[in-house]
Amino acid sequence: MNVVEVSKLTKYYGKHRGIIDVSFNIEKGEIFGFIGPNGAGKSTTIRTLLSLIYPTEGSAKIFGLDIIKDSKEIAKNVGYLPSEIFYYDNMKVKELLEYSASFYKKDCNKRMKELTEIMELDMNKKIEDLSLGNKKKVGIVQGLLHEPKLIILDEPTTGLDPLMQQKFFSLIEEENKKGATVLFSSHILNEVQKICHRVAIIREGKIIKIDNIAALKGDSYKKIRIETKDSLNSRLHDLQGVSNYLEDNSTVSFLYKGDINFVLKKLSEITLTNLLIEEPSLEEIFMHYYEREA
Amino acid sequence: MNIYKNELRLYRKSTIIWTLSILAAAVLFMSLYPSFSVGAKELLDMLNSFPKELLKGLSINLESFTSFNGFFGFVFMYISLALGIQGMYLGISVFTRENTDKTCDFLHTKPVTRIEIMTAKLLAVLSLTAATNVCYVLGVLGIAKLIGVGDFDLKVFLLIALSGFIIQIIFAALGVVVSAVKPRLRGVAGISISFITAMFILGLLSEFIDEKFLAYFTPFKYFNNFYILENAAFEPKFLVLSIAVIVASVVFGYIVFKKRDIHAV
Questions:
Q1: What is the per-residue pLDDT across A204-254, written as a single tens digit (0 to 9) for each?
Q2: Could you report the per-residue pLDDT of B90-102, keeping only the tens digit for each?
Q3: Which of B106, B255, B261 should one mutate to test binding to chain A, selecting the residue with the greatest count of A CBs within 10 A?
Q4: Structural contact between residues B189 and B105, judged by C-beta atoms closer than 8 angstroms
């Protein structure tokens, strides 16, 4: 079952491109990554799904409901954590969380208490006195206290220290195990790699690839680095399937996609002083997509 | 209901300050009435030599000036100025504040429709302004009792006071239009004061130069004290105009508010 179904979503801000023909589905129970650099259209997509902004064309459904017509019904089961947190300054943390809880027609007190304890949040502080990281924690509690079925995270880790990030990720994974679906937008590939099952890569408003993390990383690409005293000329550079080719004195590195035996045969023709073959990080693959499309 | 309560909480302090100021000014002015009515004859003689336009502009009606309601009508002009500023400030601020404080994302991702949000905010404005009006009117009635002004037509008094509330709501509604056109407006208090003062001066001007059509452009002239004092009623055409302005402004606000994109900060 699909929790999110996005179909040819397009948004223009006047003449400016927001997103063009964005389509993807998120299955129930999935942690779906959404990656791309700043300005690629991640936030535009998310804000459209939340009906903060309205699409120019196309449509989307969450829980099978229309994002524009049924936004209220959808919001009952959605938790949203924006990248930057702003709240009513003169409220205390407790007041803000209670105000937030008052929108959901269920008792959120128990979960609120649990979450504030996990996040080590002081309930009696005023919002305006909180540091950026602590504000973020309020945001996390606020986004999760009603036990949403869909959690939407827009670059959620900015401002959190590594320890809190760790706690945050385990919290999200816990919610996911309980059945929540997660849409996780980020430009930090490492964290996407750590937690997501599938990712969509977005660039200049268009989705350029949707795939499993495993498929993106493993099957197709190898990162190969060699050291040699031979002169290579462009023997390796011109090989079929080679990309991201970098030559630095005696060290050469590149990504290879294709038959591994073929590249090994080619390498055996060279006198190597060192050889390293590894899985590329998502980051390298990502750069690869960007460079190829550019 | 929770949004409504939150708005009341947010504007509690400023409303209390406004209310106390208006109340204090109204009570102070009205407490001058006894000493004023004693020397009334000399004053009337003097005022008689003033140009009619000036007197009219200042809401001074020689026939009724020395009566309690007549005097209140004169003081009321300045009360309505303050009410207008408060109304417009609230009308703009309840809608722009979420933008300038960047709390839109929080509110609009909650399970409420935009119509519900807007309605709650409008009701909050209505409640806050009504509270101000009730407080100062009770204050004036209290002082009237205290200083023993004798008999006066309560209906006329309340009509004059009610006209102030309607003027305030018109300006609040115009504030809604302003917030719809300029959702991220800052310096709302200053803008409200300037706009209302301009309207007020336009009202004076319409009397000084005796151009009746100018009255249509300033809500301060929709309710003429002289007319109310004479007829114990509002001028029908201006009452209709008031309601039309309020309804049109609010409907415009709803349409814009429902369709607007809420941009990232």
A1: 899 988 988 877 765 567 888 999 888 777 778 888 888 888 888 888 888
A2: 999 999 999 988 9
A3: B106
A4: no
Helix (H), strand (E) counts: chain B = 11, 0
Q: Which two tokens stand for residue B211?
A: 């151009």
Q: By C-alpha distance, which of B173, B170, B153 is closest to B222?
A: B170
Tell me which H or E stretch contains B137.
Answer: helix B114-147
- What is this model's ipTM? 0.86
B259 with A54: CB under 8 angstroms?
yes
Give CA–CA dist A266/A7, Å, rounded. 45
**Distance in angstroms (rounded) separating the CA atoms of residues B123 and B120:** 5
| pTM above threshold 0.90 | no
Nearest to B264 among A47, A54, A102 (CB): A47
Whole-number pLDDT of residue A218: 57
- How many angstroms away from the CA of B134 is the closest CA of chain A? 28
| B36-80 pLDDT per residue, tens | 777 777 888 888 888 877 887 777 777 777 888 988 988 999 999
Q: Which residue of A has its CA nearest to B263?
A: A53
CB atoms within 10 A of CB A171: 17
Q: How far apart are CA B37 and CA B150, in angstroms?
A: 12
pLDDT digits (tens, 9 = 90+) for A172-190: 999 999 999 999 998 877 7
CB contacts < 8 Å between A and B, how many?
Answer: 59
A-side interface with B, Cβ within 8 Å? 13, 43, 47, 50-54, 71-73, 75-76, 78, 80, 82, 84, 86-90, 99-100, 102-104, 142
Cβ contact (<8 Å) for B2 and A103? yes
Q: What sign does the CA torsion over B97, B101, B102, B103 have?
A: negative
